[in-house]
Amino acid sequence: MRIFVAIPTIGRPETVRRAVDHLASQTRSPDGIVVVSVRHEDVADLAQSPMQPEILFTDKGLCLQRNHALRHIADRADVVLFIDDDFLAADDYLAELERLFVSQADVVGATGRVIADGIHHAGYSFTDALELLRKDSPPSERREYPERALYGCNMAIRLSALGDLRFDEALPLYGWLEDIDVTFQLGRHGRLVRSNKLSGVHMGAKGGRTSGVRLGYSQIANPIYLLRKRSAPPLLAYEMMLRNVVANLLRSMSPEAHVDRRGRLRGNFLAMAHLATARLDPRYILRIKS
Fold first, then answer.
1. How far apart are CA 192 and CA 36, in angstroms?
2. What is the topology classification, in CATH, of domain 3-202?
3. Dihedral angle of Cα 36, 209, 179, 89, to the nearest 10 degrees
4. Helix H segments across the chain?
5. DSSP letter string over 201-230?
6. Taking the complete model, does pTM exceed 0.90, yes or no?
7. For residues 229 and 172, is the Cβ–Cβ distance under 8 A?
8. Cα 240 to Cα 50: distance, rounded to the nearest angstrom
9. CA 180, CA 119: separation in Å to the nearest integer?
């Protein structure tokens, strides 16, 4: 089985270099690593990595970058593992991934156990993430749990099941919920699972992310778009919209240092106004200046 690792990145050259170098500790080496960036400065000295990643460039946008990776490896891989540029996989991740996909032919997509997720707070340093990996006690018994969609910080896809399905480039820039969109559709062709033997730490690096207003707009526009497209579980889409609006509203009075809550709230309200006037479009964030 040929397993490639694909990493989209922008604006975090040190972070992506560490993530790529960390893959050297895998007990089962990847058959290839593809990093898709936007500008040469975003990958700095990545070409000097001992892992010898293939470095590609395309226009800005998570979906564009993921699709570019898929085109590049289409006839060379059986499974692609997409990881964020700030995700550190446990040393046996690829070995366990191969075991899972070989032993269970009906599994078309898999995600892992996130030991710690810095996306929900100020984030973890690289040193902190390594320590979290070291201290983790993996479960002794292998178990897979059914999922309706996968978490994009670490998601593996069987390419024969993916077929012509691609990430929706109408979800621009950060591509909010692009992982839900494509894997929910993928799940119509087989099983999606979360394996307790696939694990890692999502550092939650804050550099290179989209603006608060843009993200706030996407928090409403993208779920509505997916609902109309029927590519997201309705309950999940509504729950995410409600949870984000409530969180932005309550925390905007005393926002966290690392989150632009007031910007997100403005984006939420703008999207709701566009929804009420039939102008809602995920691509509108390309016209937002801040």
1. 25
2. Spore Coat Polysaccharide Biosynthesis Protein SpsA; Chain A (3.90.550)
3. 70
4. 13-22, 62-73, 93-103, 126-135, 159-162, 178-186, 212-229, 234-251, 261-276
5. EE----TTPPPHHHHHHHHHHHHHHHHHHT
6. yes
7. no
8. 40
9. 17
Q: Which amino acid is at 6?
A: A
**Strand bridging mode 144-146 / 191-202:** antiparallel
Q: How far is C-alpha 174 from the chain's CA centre?
A: 10
* Whole-Å CA distances, 143 to 92, 129, 169, 193, 197: 15, 24, 34, 9, 7
Q: What residue ranges do the domains of the chain occupy?
A: 3-202, 212-284
Distance between CA atoms of 8 and 77, rounded to whole angstroms? 17
Using CA atoms, how far residue 73 sits from 48, 79, 81, 89, 245, in Å, is 21, 10, 12, 21, 38
pLDDT in tens, the chain (290 residues): 999 999 999 999 999 999 999 999 999 999 999 999 999 999 989 999 999 999 999 999 999 999 999 999 999 999 999 999 999 999 999 999 999 999 999 999 999 999 999 988 888 999 999 999 999 998 999 999 999 999 999 999 999 999 999 999 999 999 999 999 999 999 999 999 999 999 999 999 876 566 899 999 999 999 999 999 999 999 999 999 999 999 999 999 898 888 899 999 999 999 999 999 999 999 999 999 87
Nearest Cα neighbor of 174 from 267, 81, 249 is 267
